[in-house]
Design goal:
By secondary structure, the chain is an alpha/beta fold. It has a domain of about 120 residues: Rossmann fold (3-Layer(aba) Sandwich). About 50% of the residues lie in helices and about 15% in strands. It has 15 helices and eight strands. The strands form two sheets. It has a four-stranded parallel β-sheet with strand order 2-1-3-4. A four-stranded parallel β-sheet has the order 6-5-7-8, with helices on both faces. Helix 3 packs across helix 4 and helix 7 runs parallel beside helix 9. The radius of gyration is 20 Å and the shape is globular.
């Protein structure tokens, strides 16, 4: 890990190539929050300092994680992610944090995104050519994560919960891309020695990564497998190209219809029986559930949670009922 002052906290996936090319170290604050010893305590800290009860727990957790870790500089994605990030950045600036905005343009406009990326690179004192060289290094790691994804849905060698953790980490490569590549390669070697898993129900997981720690574990039982992690896969930039091209094709910041097109394509390609749509309490993305149900041709179960916790008994029963529904649906074919 680089020196303390080299760390740049990020609130969502952004062109990490630029931060690495500038000799700094990006750290995804979401991952710091959810993997902390007591994530609920970080949420409580924000609430005690005045965050309203209706504030998304992820935003509260980000605030708590920044203060706990003493992160001095934070890049906040103020367009194309959580609408509350702007207010979070304002409050952090009151605490002395250096805040840097990054915004994905509405409408998936590559020209506007290119201008934003150029501005972002200038903020770190580098040219885009230097960042493109860094992208080649990071893409070596991403390609191996894509291979891991193929072992999930093509070769049936691994569970979705294992894959999604490494896909999530590709937002920042845990601050060390070379060490992260070693971690990925070790898992790939272990997985490739496994026998294929028995055929069973194939689910897709869409929406923001869950705040529920054991959700994947509860779903992936008795032959049920998650073979598609929508947002986590997008963090690994599944499409090639220059920095501008790759982050233009990255679907997460550009609205539900861009995402639904990607999801529908993967539902067909991965032979998915049903979709788990996870939404965070008090998040505007919950409204997008209406469009997803209309756009996708498979059954959808929507799960919502608020605080960092484990699967509740009610949620467990809903998952079991959904699985039973899919089994009956498959039998009627």
């Amino acid at each position: 890990m680089s020196e303390y002052g080299d760390i740049i906290g990020i609130t969502s996936t952004i062109p990490a190539e630029i931060i690495y090319a500038a000799g700094r170290v990006p750290l995804d604050i979401n991952n710091l929050f959810i993997t902390s010893r007591d994530p609920a305590a970080l949420v409580r800290r924000a609430k005690m300092e005045g965050f309203p009860d209706t504030t998304c727990s992820w935003i509260c957790g980000l605030y708590g994680a920044v203060l706990e870790r003493g992160i001095r500089t934070v890049v906040g994605v103020t367009g194309g992610d959580c609408a509350e990030t702007i207010a979070l950045m304002e409050v952090l600036s009151l605490r002395g944090t250096d805040v840097i905005p990054f915004s994905y343009p509405h409408g998936r406009d590559g020209v506007s995104l290119g201008m934003e990326i150029d501005r972002f690179a200038e903020r770190f004192g580098i040219g885009i050519e230097r960042a493109e060289k860094e992208k080649k290094r990071l893409d070596r790691v991403r390609r191996r994560i894509h291979h891991l994804d193929r072992l999930l849905w093509e070769k049936d060698r691994v569970l979705g919960g294992e894959v999604q953790l490494l896909q999530l980490g590709s937002s920042d490569f845990e601050g060390d891309p070379d060490a992260y590549l070693t971690k990925v390669e070790e898992l790939i070697a272990e997985i490739e020695s496994r026998k294929p898993l028995p055929a069973g129900l194939r689910l897709g997981f869409v929406g923001v990564p869950p705040i529920i720690s054991d959700l994947y574990e509860v779903i992936e039982r008795d032959g049920v497998r998650i073979v598609f992690n929508e947002v986590q896969r997008q963090f690994s930039l599944p499409y090639d190209g220059t920095i501008v091209e790759a982050y233009t094709r990255y679907t997460y910041p550009y609205g539900i219809f861009v995402r639904a097109e990607d999801i529908a394509r993967e539902v067909k390609r991965r032979r998915i029986d049903g979709i788990i749509h996870y939404v965070q309490a008090f998040c505007f993305r919950g409204i997008e559930d209406i469009a997803l149900r209309r756009e996708l041709g498979v059954p959808v179960l929507t799960l919502q949670a608020d605080l960092p916790s484990r699967v509740t008994e009610t949620m467990r029963l809903r998952i079991e009922a959904f699985v039973d529904l899919l089994h009956r649906r498959r039998e009627r074919r």
